[in-house]
Amino acid sequence: MKFFIDTANIEEIKEINSWGILSGVTTNPSLIAREGRVFENVVKEITEIVDGPISAEVTATECDLMVKQGRELSKIHKNIIIKIPMMEEGLKAVSILSKEGIKTNVTLIFSVNQALLAANAGATYVSPFLGRLDDIGQDGMELVSDLSEIFDIYGIKTEIIAASIRNTMHIYECAKCGVDIATVPYKIFKQMNKHPLTDSGIEKFLEDFKNVETKGEF
Ligand code: E4P
């Protein structure tokens, strides 16, 4: 399973990218707004840090404008993926952009049917939002695992990005059902790294090693 980071914060992206585990970045209008900077500048800066798919979302809700915004955003860098909300106009835009060779990520997916429509329209990625489904008392993981199974049955090339991840168990469950990608918030990456037995193990090794003679600097 590949990892993307779900943020528009440059410092967070730099830090997690330095671990050598990042394959891409997803942003959305809310994450961009949180940074208080010019949208295109943020996106460009991200492309200079991570060499992988960077999702940037259109804000139009009508096909022609979505296509226009998508074409503009795709000029920023070859790695830009145009994120388009799941809606009728969005499907039309995905179909047009994909025929032009512009990659898309259909976002705000909450059902298998929506994902199937997006895949058939030519989406490169679909983003099911599992945390937001959990929030309203539906099982987000069930959607992700159903999608994974159904895409496999039909050999659908569209990749699944598990999104709206809220905890480390979400990551574990996504990996078990073979999801292609998880887009993970900064805070969850930090939690994934931690285990109390690792911390106490390191402490004990360092303590025991204190009196060992060495030839170099250890
Ligand atoms: C995905 O691409 C979205 O940016 C994101 O995962 C939304 O997550 P949220 O439900 O925590 O806002």
Architecture overview:
- The protein is α/β, with parallel strands linked by helices.
- It has a single domain (2-209), classed as TIM Barrel (Alpha-Beta Barrel).
- Helix content is 51%, strand content 17%.
- The chain has helices at residues 10-17, 29-35, 39-49, 63-74, 88-99, 112-121, 130-135, 140-154, 168-176, 186-193, 196-209, and strands at residues 2-6, 22-26, 54-57, 80-85, 104-109, 125-128, 159-162, 181-184.
- The protein has an eight-stranded parallel β-barrel, surrounded by seven helices.
- β1, α1 (10-17) and β2 (22-26) form a beta-alpha-beta unit.
- The mean pLDDT is 97.
- Erythose-4-phosphate (E4P) binds next to α7.
- Keywords: Cytoplasm, Pentose shunt, Schiff base, Transferase.
Secondary-structure blueprint:
Elements lengths: L1 E5 L3 H8 L4 E5 L2 H7 L3 H11 L4 E4 L5 H12 L5 E6 L2 H12 L4 E6 L2 H10 L3 E4 L1 H6 L4 H15 L4 E4 L5 H9 L4 E4 L1 H8 L2 H14 L9
Parallel strand pairs: 1-2, 1-8, 2-3, 3-4, 4-5, 5-6, 6-7, 7-8
Helix pairs in contact: 1-3, 4-5
Bound molecules: erythose-4-phosphate.
Erythose-4-phosphate (E4P) binds next to helix 7.
